[in-house]
Amino acid sequence: MEVRDSNGTLLQEGDSVHVIKDLKVKGSSAVIKRGKVVKNISLTNNPEEVEGRVDKVQMVLKTCFLKKV
């Protein structure tokens, strides 16, 4: 299974990515700002999602809003 970012670049375990768009967090009033770096991502069973730690909280992020650093 290949996981790709918004530009089509292949993502792997442990990569760092930038958020390319302000994202609202479901179930919270928090917002992940554009340009935020998420380090050490983990791949999931879904090729359109990755897990990463944002501000000390583990979250699932859509790859269409991410760009590899």
Your description of this structure?
This protein has 69 residues and is mostly beta strands. The protein has one domain: SH3 type barrels (Roll). Helices cover 0% and strands 43% of the residues. A 3-stranded antiparallel beta sheet has the order 6-3-10, with no helix packed on it. A hairpin with a 6-residue loop joins strand 4 and strand 5. It starts with a strand and ends with a strand.
Task: Output the keywords.
69 residues, 43% strand, 3-stranded antiparallel β-sheet, SH3 type barrels, mainly beta, 10 strands
The whole-number mean of residue pLDDT values reads 96
CATH architecture: Roll
Low-confidence runs of at least 5 consecutive residues: none
How would you classify the helix and strand content by structural class?
Answer: mainly beta
Count every beta strand, where a strand is a DSSP E run of 2 or more residues.
Answer: 10
